[in-house]
Amino acid sequence: VNRLSQQIRFIVEIDKLKQVVRQTILMDRSRAENSAEHSWHLALMALVLSEHAAFRQVDVGRVLKMVLIHDLVEIDAGDTFCYDEGPASASKTERETAGAERIFNLLPEDQAKTFRALWDEFEKAETPESRFARALDRLQPVLHNYLTKGMAWRKHGIRKSQVLGRNQVIEDGAPALWSFAKAIIEEAAQKGYLASDPS
Amino acid sequence: VNRLSQQIRFIVEIDKLKQVVRQTILMDRSRAENSAEHSWHLALMALVLSEHAAFRQVDVGRVLKMVLIHDLVEIDAGDTFCYDEGPASASKTERETAGAERIFNLLPEDQAKTFRALWDEFEKAETPESRFARALDRLQPVLHNYLTKGMAWRKHGIRKSQVLGRNQVIEDGAPALWSFAKAIIEEAAQKGYLASDPS
Q1: How far is CA B74 from CA B66, B86, B109, in A?
Q2: Which of A23, A165, B25, B158 shows its CA 20 to 30 Å from the CA of A199?
């Protein structure tokens, strides 16, 4: 099999990400978002919001690559709701690592290694680029929930403390975006888009 | 209005690209593709296929940016089928330019200029990066048509000569990808996925 054939096989395989449905609802409230269009939205957010990254010298090109590929493992593993605390959450790492093994290895070996390294970097969340990428990945569904009057939050009875706890990592990657997120979470709670925390 | 508010307004506005439906059918034949997931697919193709670009020194980062934003104008202008030769095709440039004016100008002025320059570069197709980006934009629907047994081609009665004529620009940006495209177009014609040309 020559390089181009391997590359085309990968390009064909990843068409399946367009069928991986998320909990997030589009802002016009018409339907659930899929992971391919989600990844595109994060890439645009990276281009537009990079000045708010916690570290000045963030390499936007690497952030773009990370957000574009970060969800490919969901072709095998499915999307796991970020507030899930059940068995799906417990097995997430294992399922996604198996997906990474299979999907990236459709590529020629050098490219498979590069893609896997980018995915590992995203998962570890240690570098400025991966922390910024993860901040965007958390901010986007908060924004969608806010603008759909909490459609996904209400469906699952999510509480304000859960949203604050789960998304605080935004601060690591982009403190200004965490301030923005906190403000809309507060407003969402006041408007009744979130379930009550036990007082 | 501060910068972040303008940026968020843009990020909210572009959610609409997920609702712009194309003629291309997903490879599993389940539904039509939208322009957001199409743009994501092109970005992955740029990452994987850049070694096949006509010019060795192609700046992949700029290719990524171009393919990520090239269809935003469709939020206002809608998608125009690439084989359309009617009034939609005649007014395409005008409608899309008006879309570019409105949508990019939601951003802070410096970012609006950067995005507009990238879109203009893509449209003019003069640089190595824009020629490669356009080659990917043409190759992707050919691949989808080939794998769906010509679903979109057959719906519109598209002929082999039209497909060859319309997509020959792939050669300008990526000669090896044009060889590949010609081979699958030839096979598609033999399998009856394309209408007959008058002999």
Answers
A1: 14, 18, 21
A2: A23
